[in-house]
Amino acid sequence: MNRRYLLSKSISILLTKLVLTLIKFSISVITARFLGAAGRGLYFGANQFSGLISTIFSFSAHDGIIFHAAKKGIKKKDSLSLALLLVAFFSLISIGLIFIFWNLFIVPYLGEDYETIKIFIILLIPFLLFELFSSSVLKGFSDFHSLNKIQVRSKLILAISIFTLLSLHKTLISAFIGSILAYIFISFVYIAYFLRNYGFAYNSVLLNARKVLSYGKKMHFPYMLYELEHRVDLFIILYLLSPASLGVYSIGILFAQIVLNISNSFNTVLFTKFSDVANSKELNIKSMMYAIRNTIFLSLIFYVFFAFFGMSIIDFLFGEEFHDAYFVFLFISFGVVFDLIARGLSTYLKTELEGKLISKVLIFTLTVNICLNFLLIPALGVSGAAIASSISYLGKAYIYFLFFKKKFEINFIDFFKLNFQELNEILKVLFNKIFTR
Asked: Helix, strand or coil for residue 41?
């Protein structure tokens, strides 16, 4: 894989994700200021639960779409019909399970708003699934430029819709209605793009669905574990503490999400290119190491900035009620550096269909995460959840590293050895993308 191509595409996606993060930041400020910590916690928790349900019960179909589109196993004209079929199928499964288990497991922790939250989640899931599958289509066909534009406009619409509704009525249901209206519009944006640029056909939709699900059944269990590992702390906080505590925690991890966006930007390009059979394993390993080194370098820039100014930013934008979010960010930052390494390594393993290895690692780290959350949260509050996540991320990165060290003779220091040439490359591309956009 050409290093210039990898860096250029990744930086473009990164800059888009930074814009998206700024918009998410604005949504967080809007919901925090209008609804307070408790309302922000319920809004955030409902969105996270919707996302968790829609991804867990979609059987990694989105990764299957990327995998087969990159291999030219899916035609562009068939992509919209495939996305719509998968949305209908997995929405029925997800919503059915919500009706079955809602009163048993969810209601006790949501207070008097549980029925409103239930309706919101049921309405939101199909739109989240459609956005997930549609964006996967664009990633699979390496249509990153169009994806970036659609995502920025979509999140901007979401922010405007929520702000407008909350300005009229400062209630949780107003935030929910604003979100649903925005996602309806976003879905039409994706549909219009596909019809205009990809066309529409449905003759091969069942065959394509079987291909996608065939990949999904091999890789879904580790993906499900991964999603649980990164969200289980949210629900434990809601269980052990309160919606207000979850609201504070959500702001702390929002800062950390900026750093994770750097890793996701590189991994989006890597997964597409690793899936291409034309690339050799040796070239893929070199590209992976190069991406991880650049990811860590860019992450440290953001960490230094937020370490110095994060508390002032939080107090100014969100208010003193969210002051502890700064300490959440500090504690989780340490672990996120190692999570960046783990994400890069696991991206390669996914394309090699090493689902069993990924599953074993994630079962161990998820167990550690859950145990530490129940141990540390009662004693340290939301900071305990951040510490628990950091420890589990460290363990995951170390286990993956041992595998790669044995198989490819990689040394741990190699992740941090960014030489002058690579530093010059990344700064040149970064400034070029910033000042020519």
From this structure: helix
Tokens of 232: 């289980």
Residues 84-91: contacts with CB under 8 Å, at least 24 apart: 84/130, 85/205, 85/206, 85/209, 86/58, 86/61, 86/129, 86/133, 86/209, 86/212, 87/126, 87/129, 87/130, 87/133, 89/209, 90/54, 90/57, 90/58, 90/59, 90/61, 90/129, 91/125, 91/126, 91/129
What does the alpha-carbon distance between residue 250 and residue 244 come to, in Å, rounded to a whole number?
10
pTM above 0.90, yes or no: no
Q: Give how far the C-alpha of residue 178 lies from the chain's centroid of Cα atoms, to the nearest Å.
A: 22
115, two tokens: 């029925």
What's the CA gap between 165 and 177, in Å, rounded?
A: 8
CA distance 22 to 423: 26
DSSP 335-382: HHHHHHHHHHHHHHHHHTT-HHHHHHHHHHHHHHHHHHHHHHHHHHTH
* Burial class of residue 293 in the structure, from the number of CB atoms within 10 Å of its CB (0-12 exposed, 13-18 middle, 19+ buried): buried
* pLDDT tens, position by position, 97-130: 888 777 655 545 555 567 788 889 999 999 999 9
Per 3-state DSSP, what percentage of the chain is helix, strand, and coil (rounded to 5)?
Answer: 90, 0, 10
User: What angle do the packed helices 114-140 and 243-274 form, to 10 degrees?
Assistant: 20
Q: Name the residue with higher pLDDT: 289 or 372.
A: 372
Of the candidates 146, 143, 140, 400, the residue with the CA atom closest to the CA atom of residue 273: 140
On whether the CB atoms of residues 127 and 187 are closer than 8 A, the answer is: yes
In the numeric block, which tokens belong to residue 264?
């996701």
Q: What would the DSSP string read from start to end of 258-278?
A: HHHHHHHHHHHHHHHHHT-TT
User: Tokens 């141990």 appear where?
Assistant: 375
Task: Tell me the average pLDDT of the chain.
Answer: 81
How much is the average pLDDT of 123-148? 91
pLDDT at 319 over 60: yes
pLDDT in tens, 41-54: 989 988 988 888 88
